[in-house]
Amino acid sequence: MDELMERETAQLTPVKLSQEALKDLPEGIAGPGYDRASLKPGIIHIGLGNFHRAHQAWYLHRLMQKGLAKDWAIIGAGVRPYDAAMRQKLLAQDCLTTLIELAPGSVSAEITGSMIDYLPIEDGNGALIRAMADPAIRIVSLTVTEGGYFLDPATGGLDVRHPDIRHDVENPTRPCTVFGAIAAALKTRRDAGAGPFTVQSCDNLRGNGNATRQAVVSLARLTDPKLADWIDQTCSFPNSMVDCIVPATGPVEIALARKLGIEDAVPVTHENYRQWVIEDDFCAGRPDWNKAGAVFTPSVHDYEVMKIRILNAGHQVLANAGEMLSVETIADCMEHPLIAALFQKVQQEEIAPYVAAVPGMNPQDYAELIERRFSNAAIRDTVRRVAFDGSSRHPGFVHPILRDALAAGGPIAGLSLVEALWARMCAGTREDSTGIEANDPHWEALAEAAMAARLRPQAWLEQHDIYGDLAGNQWFAVEFSRWLSLIWSEGCEAALRAYTGHEQAQGSLDT
């Protein structure tokens, strides 16, 4: 057993994480080797969840451990009421985080300290706007989820009909969205002659920098066209690709931190793999993240497509089938013969053909890497977490591949089956008759469409805000209808066997 885990019985009283407690960390757990009191802020990060703390904040921490980037410390921020709970927990432990790396067969941990404060969560986002207006802030970074960019699926532009966007147009000095707050802060900086900052998306979104530019500039243009022009001409919005599997934190993860000797209210577990590929476009400077392993390149797009299509779309291939068959985690899905066979066949035949190679990696080898990463049983990444917000993730990850396959005349049976499994899942019951709790911001509408599609499959595709032009594609409609009808009549396993050709003895699929 790993050395750290052997301390489970020896460590009777975990150390409550704080700046003061860093001197008492258990043996084998490293803390910040730099003077945190001397750090100066340079980055505000909005949407401070587990992924940011395991990824961008970790890269910055590694630089600080080398004596670098001490004027780039992170201030956390949020724009939603639920962010207040995270703020309270992190401030109580001086914004320190326990990162627990779960490699196959081993566990290790470290304490990161690159974050130094967390702004108050306020109606109108006054504290956030004032902080971003400070000339010391040179980067505002985001992890607001794929669904947080207010994209209109019909046009690809800003959804000006969304209530939050309408609110910000009517109340530009008291916005409720992250993009409204950024625009308001940039107006203050322009008027004061303080100069622009870089807005850096770290979300799993194709062209995430382009999408961020579109959201900020389009929103600003609705109230102040001259401000919109200034932002568009002076601010930077670099595209990037981010990659690290980071499960949600719950009682198991908190207990694991305690076993390692740390009392942390919000520890983060993560796999033993990270990748960050960034477009080098920063109008006000940046940390030397490349010295901590990040890659700066003008060719982010190919890396981004490979990761989003093989990993993120691959997650959707697994998650809905896993939910329907009561399989708890992604690693468990990879142990399930039928779900694993679905994953392998769709990846090889319907996803990899529409992915270009990147330096040092072709799509087939990357798919095998993802299969190994997904199979890491130490990562308890639940299918529920991965299936969350399918109304954003399917259009963002799966549907672009479908469009490419349709245009090329390639096979689409597996991708159509994936969509049918999602439609069946949104009906709200598993095949063992247990209920599926709401798991999407638009769950009620999805559930209504899913039940209508039981008798008329086309009803699911008529959700034009999700499917757009795909709804009118006859080839896709026929394939989708065939699979959904089979799933409702004979069950998910019958559909998986029909697609994969995988024969399985009765009773051998217990999970």
From TrEMBL:
Q: Keyword Nucleotide-binding on this protein?
A: no
InterPro entries, per this entry?
A: 6-PGluconate_DH-like_C_sf, 6PGD_dom2, Mannitol_DH, Mannitol_DH/Oxidoreductase, Mannitol_DH_C, Mannitol_DH_N, NAD(P)-bd_dom_sf
UniProt organism field:
Leisingera daeponensis
Organism lineage reads as: Bacteria, Pseudomonadati, Pseudomonadota, Alphaproteobacteria, Rhodobacterales
Per UniProt, the keywords (alphabetical) are: Oxidoreductase
Under what name is this protein listed? Mannitol dehydrogenase family protein
Domain Mannitol dehydrogenase C-terminal, which positions? 300-482
- One matching Pfam family is Mannitol_dh
Q: Where is the Mannitol dehydrogenase N-terminal domain?
A: 42-291
